[in-house]
Structure formats: C-alpha cells, structure tokens
Amino acid sequence: MIMAIGSLSWNDASELIQLGEYMYANGACWFLYFLISFTVGCIVALSELLGRYSWSLSDILRSAAGRAYLMLNGAISLIAYLAALDWKLGLGLEGRSEIWRVLLVSISAMAVIRSAFLNVKVDGKEVSAGFALIFDIFVRRSERVLDQELTEKMWLEITPIIKGMSYKETHSHLMVLSKGALRSISKEEEEALEQALSKIDRLEVDDSTKMQLLAMLLVHKTSISLFKTLAAQVKEQNLTENKLAKDSVADKLSKLKQLKEEFKA
Predict the structure, then answer these.
(1) Rounded to whole angstroms, how far apart are CA atoms 211 and 203?
(2) Which of 8, 58, 80, 85 has the fewest CB atoms within 10 Å, i.e. the most exposed one?
(3) 174: Cβ–Cβ under 8 A, 6 or more apart, which residues?
(4) How far is CA 4 from each of CA 15, 79, 227, 238, rounded to the nearest angstrom?
(5) 208: Cβ–Cβ under 8 A, 6 or more apart, which residues?
C-alpha cells in the first residue's frame, strides 16, 4: 500500500485529492438533504401540536413525549426520502435541484400517514382506516402525556396567582379582560369560551375549585404571563373597590353618629 502510494505521480495524487474533495462535498450535500427531510417532518408535527398548545412551544420541546413525536415524524419523513432515492423516483423533477425532491417527498409522506383511505363503521361510528388509524395512536398518546405534564405545571403556576381571588367576585371581570386581550379571537372561539364558563358555573363545587378551573381555561386561551397580568389588575381593582366601600361605610357611620348627636342636642 505504501509502495503504491509512493509510486503515484503528481497527476495521480492530484486526481485523488480532487476525487476526495468531490466525495466530501457530495456527502455533505446528501447529509444536508437528509437533515432537511428530517426537519420537514419535525416542523409538520410541531405545527400539529402547536394547534393544540399554542402557548407552549418551550414546554413541547422540553417534554419527552413532545420530542418523541417530533422525532417520529422526522424519521418517517427521512425514511420516505431514502425510499425515493433507493427506488430512483424522479417524480418529474429530473434536471431540477435535489432540494425540490426532498421537500415534495417529505411533505407527501406527512400527508400520506395522516390520510384515511376509507372509513369503516364500527358500532355505528365511522373509524378511519389506513395509516391514519395507526398514526392516530401515537398522536393521542403524545397529547395525553403532554396534557398531564402541562396541566401539572399549570396547576403549580396558577395556584399562587389566584390566591385570595374569589370566582364569584372576579370571573366576570376576568372574562371581559381576557376577551379584550384576545383581539384575534373569532366568534366561534368566543362562543366556546362562554360555553366553557357556563359549564364551570353549573358545577356543584366550591368557589376555590371554580376559580382554579376558570384560571386554567383562560391560561389555555391566553398565556400564563398574560393571565398573571390580568389577575393582578383584577386584584388591584378589587382592593380599590373594597377600600371605597369601606370608606363609604365609614362615612355613613360618621354621618349617622353626627345625626344622633344632633338629635340628642
């Protein structure tokens, strides 16, 4: 081997170097395509979860279930692209940049695994058949775990914020402020919010539990930081109203005392 290398001419060595540079550059390009394909799958999965947890991007990324769901979608997208390469699927993109095939195959793979080729009736209910049925298992599992993790975190964050707040005295004010803060809220979303509030009103539980449920509802629609600001504003207004009420009572008592003294005189 050493003798063979020693016998190489300058031109042969130059050609080997050029071949090595080509292979390195080509390998780097393919690695980039693989990375793009994997990223497309992750982005689609992330957008899916953000549709449900719109305020919890960091929580999704920190959650083991959230990361597993993103990686599952990324892996499926990458496998689809590798299959397209192995089967030499041109997809009518011959002569085009490879990036277009990467995007087309990856996005198509995400669409296929979410598609139901037919619906089957089971006990009077329509159930999707095909990849959608299998994939739905992973979606529900991920959402269930995320729900548990985020609810626990939310519960711990909400408790000190609503300390001293009464559902009966503050729910109307909080709802008005929340709707004002959510300027992009649609009519359907507003109606859903009102229906959720009505359900809380009808629950036969104590005031404290209703306050916690209301807080969780509003945090889902806004964010923990915005709810904290709204709650602080409501508390401040309640303190002001209570002070005014006390001042009013004190003023009335003072006037009553004055009238008694005048009557005695």
Answers:
(1) 12
(2) 58
(3) 214, 218, 230, 231, 234
(4) 15, 41, 74, 90
(5) 167
The two three-digit tokens of residue 248, written as one number:
């009013």
- Closest by CA to 68, choosing from 39, 37, 45, is 45
Q: Going residue by residue through the chain (265 aa), what tens digit of pLDDT does each one get?
A: 333 434 445 455 565 455 455 445 566 677 888 999 999 999 999 998 888 776 678 888 888 888 999 999 999 999 999 998 888 887 777 778 888 989 999 999 998 888 766 566 556 666 566 677 777 777 888 888 888 888 888 888 888 888 888 888 788 877 777 777 776 777 888 888 888 888 998 888 888 888 888 888 888 777 788 888 888 888 777 666 655 555 555 555 565 566 556 566 5
Q: Which residues contact 126 (CB under 8 A, 6 or more apart)?
A: 119, 120
